[in-house]
Design brief:
globular
Amino acid sequence: MKLVFLIISFLCCYHIQAQNLVIKNVNVVDVENGKILSGKDVTIADGMIQSIEKSKRKITADHIDGTNKYLIPGLIDAHMHLFQSGGLYTRPDAINLQHIVPYNTERQWLYEKTEDILRRYLSQGITSVIDIGGPMYNLAYKDSINQMSNTAHTYLTGPLVSTYLPKELDVEYPPIVKATDAAMAKEFVNNQMEFNPDFIKIWFVILKQQDALDYRPIIKAAIEEAKRHHKPVAVHAKELITAKIALELGADYLVHSVSDVEIDEEFIELLKSSNAVYCPTMQVSSNTDKVFYGDYDATSLDYKIALPKALGSLMDIRHINDSRDLEYYQANKTDILSRQKKSDTIAKINLKRINDSGIPIALGTDAGNIGTMHASSYFREIELMKSAGMSDVDILKSATINAAKAIRKQLEIGSVDTQKKADLLILNHNPLIDIGHLKDIDLIIKDGILIDQSSLIIPTSEDIVQRQLNAYNGHDLDAFMELYAEDVKIYNFPNELVLEGKDMMRQSYKFLEDTPAMHCELLNRTVLGQTVIDHERVTFDIDKPPSDVIAIFKIKEDKISTVHFIR
């Protein structure tokens, strides 16, 4: 990949002129104080919130009627990575499967999906994302991607300034750069300044406790150089010792849970005195383990809005049998899962204590890592934060104003206030009563522009076929049938009609829910317009050899209308 090409390719994005809008008689949710400001008129112009006033009640056709609706700031994912897809082949340092999908192939495909990914976030009311580190070329398109009206705002940094670099990620335009001394740490920070990053990220990784003290000069130099350029600093620090050092040296944002030991009062006081924000990322490690052990359970939202190809790749684990990494994971399964369970328990205990202490907590998913899907993982993170003891009010705050505070953008986004970006959601119900109401969106406004939510995810014929394959392999009959037309016809090639109509098909495919060994491996795919031809290898019973099948799918109005099987 060539950086010049990457920059030029994003200069053709478009921007729609911001609209002048008035939302009448709406309930404004004050996320900082957990209160409802009833009956307000909110005026928007030039992409900004201009005024919030007591409603004058008169509503005309030019206004948005907010009666009995709830206005909140757009949601923020405070920790994600655009250089990772969430799929099986996206982190060769975790599991190296480059003999199946080379890392450069994965990166190029993922780069081409950048706009698509950011549309998917916006479709869920996530109007801003904070990319916590990736290749330098991400910074090169920061301004152009943020001019687009149909994608989430993206706050970016460049490569993670690190104490450790996995050899598999030592590539052209690396996502991580290793500093071996203080001078190199400063140089890596300075290299990003040409592109004006929103913050600097440090990957404080230790292999043994003493490393934390040995690396202290490197961390100190990186933080000081970032602060010299007036940039906030985010630090990956999963151990209590690394987290304390990061805070002592001036970190603004801890981007993971402390999960090795339970935190102490000294750590709480460090968080308070530094005004730092804490982001727990509760699901990411467990998701990866679930994928490796074939236990990943996709949600209905994953099937609908996750990148279809990335989600589908997670199920490839069932037919891969030539990986040393997988052999290692299988040989050490008991120990790995035991350690992860302990880590998850400690993380929950620590989150509860930090929340009870009034420390600002930001909602971030670490989406892009294996098994943590872009956009759809957001609501799984909410469920885990709630299970740790956070209230609905605190979670809403973490998803909005606290996430903005994490990188010192609270004057731009994160609450419904005048002179902030008009990135807003109108909800049908009160999220302070039930955080689940975040899914019940009436309208999305981004940069002062009304967004057609239904137009943000534009499925290709290949996407539709891949989604039904994902649901098939996930044994989710409802998600599978959703992709088929009401009058679908299934044939044995060339013209022997086997099934007709969705009801008959559903009855015939009930075996999906009752056959755990059922798995379909995609061997080859040809796409020609609205026709997709898959060569599949289907396992029905682990004690019997699989069968090869050719399936010819015809797509009409975003549904599969006919399938011809060649067996």
